[in-house]
Amino acid sequence: MRIIMTGGGTGGHIYPAIAIADKIKRKNPEAEILFIGTMRGHEKDLVPKNGYPIRFITARGFNRKNLFANIQTIKDHLNGERQAKAILAEFAPDLVIGTGGYVCGPVIKAAAKRKIPCYLHEQNAFAGLANRMLEKYAKKVFLAYPEAAQYFKQKKKLIVTGNPLRKDFLFSALSDTRKQLGILPTDFCVLCFGGSLGAEAINRTIVEAAESLITVPHVKLFLISGRKSYESVVFDLKKREILESEQISVLPYADDMHVYLNAADLVISRSGALTVSEITACGKPSILIPSPNVTGNHQYFNAKAVSDKGAAVLIEEKDLNAKGLLGVILRLMGNREAINIMAKAAAAVGRLDSVDLIYDHLELDKK
Fold first, then answer.
1. Distance (Å, rounded) from C-alpha 72 to C-alpha 69?
2. Rounded distance, CA 203 to CA 208, Å?
3. What domains are there in the chain, each with its CATH number?
4. pTM higher than 0.70, yes or no?
5. Cβ 219 vs Cβ 250: under 8 Å
6. Which of 221, 237, 260, 272 is a good FRET partner for 101, with 20 to 30 A between their CA atoms?
């Protein structure tokens, strides 16, 4: 059995592909899996780190602001399709799975021309342009959110599966992560993060709010600032003379995010597709602050899909301020019933069986 996985650019496209590949390998140890990506995306590092070979093609996304720049985009797409065709001829896969990003276009189109079965996975509530354009080539399109169905024409192909998560999230709930992080049973743990690079607006606001927050007994704040923002956050906390507080822990990055999420009582974060799926899979109430600087404002739609079900409070960045954020935190902290209702709603939205559902719908020679 030979499988090609393709998807790239951000971790939001790459980690679902790795999760699907891991599932296939667990069920079919003899399977050969090859990733196709570009040298421009994070897949060049993440895929080898997770033990899979990767080949590279030329591809880039469309530039909506400078139409003339798309002349090079079209050239890259055509070159990428020729490169993908050569890889497909050499590797001879039984099927191809695309998880989004501009690299999927040349690979899926080249595979469809060779009559190789293709599958797509869409991580966001607002479907990406690449997957919408490639829908006609796919046998099935897996959706993380039912709200994404409206962006596709061929409804019979759509299957709502949720987002496949890294295997760490499937088992971390079985361990005592609060004890692991030194959180007391009486503590109310707030986890705040903005992604691997951090989110300046969130960091700035939570640091300002922290001055008042740490005066509340039994509050524990974990702030994962992002590597680029770590030094400025530490400087700001020092300036406010609250860095040394035992109630605040600041980290630049966390590889074991599953540990922190399972330990938290309340999560404050951006609303990237995987972030939201990880939060809800852990059954955690959240305050979601969508990034306004993403294509199609898709983070807003991810957050809205969860907040509409009562699992999160949605605050748009234009409305974000320390006083307002602190008020929401204290209101939820002081209302255990509300927190429990949000937690139940998050658990109802979250899925731990996503990768199993996707695997079951792949037409593999399963033994």
1. 6
2. 9
3. 2-165+353-361 (3.40.50.2000), 169-349 (3.40.50.2000)
4. yes
5. no
6. 260
Q: What is the DSSP letter of 34?
A: E
User: Which SS3 state, helix, strand or coil, does residue 54 take?
Assistant: strand
DSSP annotation string for 297-328: GHHHHHHHHHHTTTSEEE--GGG--HHHHHHH
Using CA atoms, how far apart are residues 246 and 335, in angstroms rounded to an integer? Answer: 24
- Determine if residue 70 is left, alpha or beta; phi over 0 gives left, psi from -120 to 50 gives alpha, anything else beta: alpha
The residue count of the chain comes to 367
CA distance 20 to 50: 12
Going by C-alpha positions, the residue among 115, 113, 152 that lies closest to residue 135 is: 152
> What is the spatial distance between Cα 326 and Cα 210, in angstroms, rounded to a whole number?
8
- The CA distance from 242 to 355, in Å, is 43
Question: Residue 85 is which amino acid?
Answer: K
CA dist list (Å): 160 to 134, 252, 328: 18, 34, 32
- Chain segment 34-87, per-residue pLDDT in tens: 999 998 888 999 999 999 999 999 987 666 666 666 677 788 778 889 999 999
Q: What is the pLDDT of residues 284-318, one digit of tens each?
A: 999 999 999 887 899 999 999 999 999 999 999 99
CA distance 133 to 217: 53
Please, are residues 142 and 358 in contact by the beta-carbon 8 Å criterion? yes
- The tokens for 353 are 């069986």
- DSSP per-residue codes, 112-140: HHTT--EEEEE-SSS--HHHHHHGGG-SE
DSSP codes of every residue in 245-264: -TTEEEES--S-HHHHHHH-
Q: Which residue has the tokens 């966390």?
A: 254
